[in-house]
Amino acid sequence: MNDVNADAVNLQDWVGRTEEASDQAYPTPPRALAATLDQVGTDYAVGTPLPELWHWLYFLPMAPGREIGPDGHPKRGGFLPPIALERRMWASGRYVFRDHLRVGDVLHKTSEITKVAEKDGKTGRMVFVTVRHTVRSGRGLAVEEEQDIVYLPMPKTFTPPPPTKAPENPSWSEPAAIDPVLLFRFSALTFNGHRIHYDLPYAKDTEKYPGLVLHGPLQALLLLEAAKRHAPDRVPSSYSFRAVHPVFGHDRVTLMGVARDDGGVDLFTVNGDGHVGMQATVAWAANDQSR
């Protein structure tokens, strides 16, 4: 695949495009993720419920090496529009959990580009692409997902957004053990070749970050897993997250939860300076509901 000439296309032509994919929920990926997260007690035998968000271990974009761009992502074009901005990040996501996926299930995913929006930001032009995914098993619809991808120009210097202070009195907080091995293993498990997560010279010299970048999806996953540990009898019914400030592999990271009046929990990753990296919200299914 060659890069598409982004100047010759109308990005709105990509709205409405769809893509279908099938996979099977083999047990090795969740076993490997559990080991990566230092979790014990579940062997993920066939029939075991797959934790929420762990469908990210499947439907991996397996572009061959010759189709990889300089940042480690697949080259532009194809299903996603060929946006002529060098940086690409997963900015936010929204989820509704309808049913448990189970190890051994044959899975089917339908993806549709629902929106392409251009904006002007502090660092210049930005383009947001929203993709809606639905994941089904043989029992029916399991996960509804909306994913927001943002494209940005390559910066000349590190210019982070203004910091957001962490909650002063969280309902609970706990440290998260972050190191380069965790970043590398998560990249490998999700087949994410983006070099900012494992290639320190590239992250610093090309994308101008002060260190390796902690994945947005990994932060979202760590927050949801922590929320479930603090509410072991509850089942998530919906979840949303939004990245507000980069977090790095050398940061001292804390996970925080703040109880909401509606029964849900607001969640935050917080760096060593007390600044929020990601904020999220989980809503629980009613006690008489099961999946």
TrEMBL record:
One of its GO terms (molecular function) is (3R)-hydroxyacyl-[acyl-carrier-protein] dehydratase activity. Coiled coil: none annotated. It comes from the Bacteria. Residues 81-143 form the FAS1-like dehydratase domain. SUPFAM superfamilies: Thioesterase/thiol ester dehydrase-isomerase. Pfam families: FAS1_DH_region. This is FAS1-like dehydratase domain-containing protein.
